[in-house]
C-alpha cells in the first residue's frame, strides 16, 4: 500500500483527488466536535456506553454520538437507507427495472435513497430526543424558553441537517475524491475513536503509570496479529474455472478462452454483524423509551446483556441468518448460470443451465457457512484477546470496527491501483 500511495502522489490528477478527499474528511471531523446548544455531553456518553449497538454506532461516527455533537447521527441514516433500497430493489419489480436502466435509473434510485435518508434521520433524531429527554440533566431547556417541545424540534432539525451534510460529504468524496465516500467516512470515524482512546492511555503513561506502557505494547501486538488474520481471510476466495467454447461470428472467431468466477469467503462484508447487533440491541432501545417498561427492561438487561449465554447464542444465530440472507441477495446462481450459457461458457464436468445453477448454489452455501463462522469468531475473539491487555483497551477497536478498517483499507488500495493503471493507460494512448 505504501508503494501504491507513492505512485498515486506522483500523478497530478490522483494527487488532487487525494488532497480533496483529505479536506472533506477533515470537514467531517470538524463537524464531529461542533456542540449542539442545550445538550449535556456526559448524559449522552453514559447513555451510549450502556448499549452495545449505540457504542458501535458511536465508534463509526468518531465518538460524535457519545458527545452529542452536530454529526451525532453520522452516516448511519444513509447506510440504513441504502440497505433498505437494496432490499426493496430485490422485492419490488419497479425498482428492479430502474436499477437495470443504466445511469438514468441509478440517478432516480439515488434520489429516492436521499429522501429515505432524510426520513430515517428525522426518525432517529426524534428517538434520540425521546430517549435522552427522559434524563433531567440531558437537555437544558433554558435555551429553549423552558419548553421540551421547542428543544426537541430544534435538535431534530439540527441532527437531520447534520446527517444530510455527512451524506453530502460522502457523495462528494465518491464523485470527486478517491474511493467510496461512505466507506471512507466510516473508516476515519473508527480510526479517530481508536486514536483518541490510545492517546488517553499514553497520557496516563506520561503521568507516571509506566505499567500501562506494557499493556499498550501488548495491545498493538494483538491488533497486528488480528489484522493479519482478517486480511488473510478477507483476501481468500474460491475460484471456479469457466471454459468458453469457440464461436465464429462473420469472419472473426470468439471464445476459446478460460476464466474464473471469484467467490469471496467474506462476500457479505460486515453487514451480518451490523444487522445482528442492531436486532439484539433494538428491544432494549424500544423499552428504554417507555418508562412503564422499566421492569421488562431490567429483565432483558439481566438475561440478554453483553456477555451472557443467551446474548452470545442469539447473536451467533443472527450472524448466521443474516450471512446467508445477504449472500442470497448478492449472488444469484441462476443469473450467473444464464450469463455463462448465453456467452457459450461452461464449468468443466457440469452441464449448462440448471445443473450449473445448482452447483454454484451449493458452492455459495458452503463458502457462506465458513464466512459466517469467521464473522462469529470476529464478533467475540478480539474482545477476549484485547482484555489480556487491560479492560480499558477492550473498546478501543470494536470487533466490527476491525473488519471495517481492514475491508476499507484493502478497497482503497485497489481503487488507487485501478486509477493509477487507468491514468497510465490513457497516457500510453496519447
Quick synopsis:
By secondary structure, this protein is mainly α.
Record field, number of beta strands: 5
Form type: globular
Rounded mean pLDDT score: 78
Radius of gyration: 24 Å
Total count of helical runs of at least 4 residues:
17
Task: Kindly describe this structure.
By secondary structure, the chain is mostly helical. It is 72% helix and 5% strand. The chain contains 17 helices and 5 strands. The protein has a 3-stranded antiparallel sheet with strand order 4-1-5. Helix 11 runs antiparallel to helix 16 and helix 11 (211-234) packs across helix 17.
Give the helix/strand layout.
Elements: H1 2-9, H2 12-31, H3 41-49, H4 52-60, H5 64-67, H6 76-91, H7 93-99, H8 102-133, H9 148-176, H10 181-206, H11 211-234, E1 237-244, E2 247-249, E3 252-254, E4 258-264, H12 271-289, H13 294-304, H14 309-330, H15 333-342, E5 345-346, H16 354-387, H17 399-429
Antiparallel strand pairs: 1-4, 1-5, 2-3
Helix pairs in contact: 1-17, 2-9, 2-10, 4-12, 6-7, 6-8, 7-8, 8-9, 9-10, 10-11, 10-17, 11-16, 11-17, 12-13, 12-14, 14-16, 15-16
